[in-house]
Each structure stands twice: as C-alpha cells, then as structure tokens.
Design goal:
328 residues, elongated, single chain
Length: 328
C-alpha cells in the first residue's frame, strides 16, 4: 500500500490500539513491529483497505507519503535510541518522528537536538489513557519540533479524546516539554491512587466502617465534585466479589501479604497509612468525633480536597520552570 498517512512502529498493547484508533478514523496506516507474532496478530476487520502490515522498516517508510510521519510506540530507554538509529537512514529533512512512550524528558530533549541537526522533526508525545484510551481516544501532550507538530497535529488531534468540540491534545513547547508534563501527570495520578488506597484504609481501620459502607461512600462521591475516572474505577473494583460474600479487594490484599516473617515473625499490614494521610485526617476530625454517616462523608471530603489542592499547587510550581515554557 502506498501513500499511507502515518506509520506506527511497535504493535504491542498500546501501539496496536493507537493504530486501530487511527484506522477507525479513516487514516491510512503502515504498521510494523519487529515481533513476527505482533505483526501476525494485528488485524482490523472491515478496514483492510486502510492499513498495511509491513515486513520491514524499508517497506514501512516507502509506504508513506511525504513528509513522512512515523509514530514510535516502544519501551522507553535504549530501545527508542535503537529504533531512531534504524529509521534515520531512510528519512529525509522535514520528516517527522514521534516518540509516544513514557520517555524521560531529558532524553527527549537530547533526541530533539540530535535530530534537529539532521533536519528531522522530533516530537515527544505523552499518551495518557492506557489501552482503552489509546483505542478510543487518549489525552496527549506534545513537545518538541513546532514544524513537526504542524505536520502531524491533524492526525493527533483527531484520534485524541474530545471534551465537547475541544481535542484533548495540544502542543506544549519545545524539547522535552510534552514528556515533562506527562511525568508530572503520572506523578499526580500515582499520588491520587495512593490517596484512594489510604482513604479506604483509614475508613476501614480508623473509622471501623464495613466494606459495604465504604463502597456506598465512594458511590456517592461519583455524583459529587470528587468524581473522576479514578474514583469511578475504584467503585468498580470495590463492587467486585471474590466469593459470594467476600470482596475481590480482600483477595488482592491477601495475595500481597507475605506468609510469614523470617524467624517466626508476624503478619504484615499491606496498606500502611502514610504520615500525611494521618495528619490531614486528624485536622479534619473534631476532638469529640461521633461516627455517623454524614460526619464520615464530611471528614473524608475535606481530607481529599486538602490533598488535591496540595497536588495542584505542586503542578503550578512546576510550570514555572523556564526551560520548558519558553516559546519556540
């Protein structure tokens, strides 16, 4: 197939999902992976005229119209440098290379500088949303070559998630800005995940609520200002059962527990509440605290809002770093 709009290098879980997303949006895709199994497994029924699975890099590059756009979805680190070295001999000035993995932003800045000298436009794009997001519409943060962004933005913004008419994909700034923002994004996400786990722990072991009571509170948060994707999937996890009466969550905790400490030790708690959670919750609770459904809801809502505000202030401070926010 000739005159493909874009190539997708790497057909793992994320790469194949992104390629299918592009194909479903009627872009013509040249797909390639070093893995024979991944190439053989890739298929989009009913859209065979919108993609080609290429046997090698040369075929992939020659399938593209110019300027060529190649989206790499490979493991962050040395693998990215290896793929770039493999592709560069087939590229020309003005072609666009996109790294969609979770690369370290300083590595992205280095690659941007190296390829700029060769006339090749390099973009580091943070892709958020996991396998489902990649397939149906991820959030994407692009940084690097402004010229490369102008060439590829139509495809990227089309396949991204949308909020109303607005695409959840934009250009941040030059060098490693896109991957820098993705790093901050990941850090906040992991902190919120930890916070949700500690919230469950405090409710269960500090406030002595049952699993069903905690699940009910999380359900109510779905219709409040605390609602988010992470709260939504947390409710789904809390609702799943291991046995007819036991929550699946208990099975997960049980599997994580070490069976015994050396020399006849003790059972270890799998979810210790961190100092920040204990202190923040203590500030929310009055000295003469009486456990009622409403008091628990008020206390935990205040607790979470305090933590979200703290995380947001951290992001705002990170935006003040000048090297990633100067105009290109």
């Amino acid at each position: 197939m000739k005159n493909c709009d874009i190539a997708l290098y790497g057909l793992g879980v994320m790469g194949s999902s992104l390629a299918k997303n592009m194909i479903h949006h009627d872009f013509r895709v040249a797909a390639y992976s070093k893995s024979d199994a991944e190439r053989a497994r890739f298929a989009v029924p009913g859209k065979e005229d919108h993609y080609a699975v290429c046997a090698d890099v040369r075929e992939m590059v020659e399938s593209l119209k110019t300027p060529r756009i190649i989206f790499m979805m490979v493991t962050a680190g040395p693998a990215v440098d290896s793929v770039i070295a493999e592709l560069v001999p087939f590229l020309e000035p003005g072609d666009v290379l996109i790294d969609g993995g979770n690369s370290y932003f300083k590595d992205t800045a280095r690659r941007y500088e190296d390829l700029e000298h060769k006339g090749i436009c390099f973009l580091g794009v943070g892709v958020s949303g996991g396998e489902k997001g990649a397939l149906y519409g991820p959030s994407m943060m692009a940084g690097g070559s402004r010229k490369g962004w102008d060439v590829s933005r139509h495809i990227l913004q089309t396949i991204a998630a949308h909020c109303g008419e607005d695409s959840c994909c934009t250009y941040i700034s030059r060098e490693g800005a896109g991957h820098y923002v993705k790093m901050v994004h990941n850090g906040i996400e992991y902190a919120v995940l930890q916070l949700i786990a500690e919230t469950y722990y405090v409710m269960k072991h500090g406030l002595h609520l049952t699993h069903e009571q905690i699940t009910d509170i999380f359900r109510e948060w779905k219709s409040s200002r605390l609602n988010s994707y992470l709260i939504d999937i947390s409710v789904s996890v809390l609702e799943k059962k291991w046995t007819r009466t036991a929550p699946l969550l208990w099975k997960k905790f049980w599997m994580l527990l070490p069976r015994r400490e050396p020399a006849g030790g003790h059972w270890r708690n799998p979810l210790p509440a961190a100092y920040i959670s204990r202190q923040s919750l203590r500030q929310c609770l009055p000295e003469t605290f009486h456990l009622t459904r409403q008091s628990v809801k008020r206390a935990m809502r205040s607790f979470l809002q305090r933590q979200f505000r703290s995380s947001w202030m951290t992001v705002q401070r990170s935006w003040e770093m000048p090297c990633f926010w100067r105009s290109s």
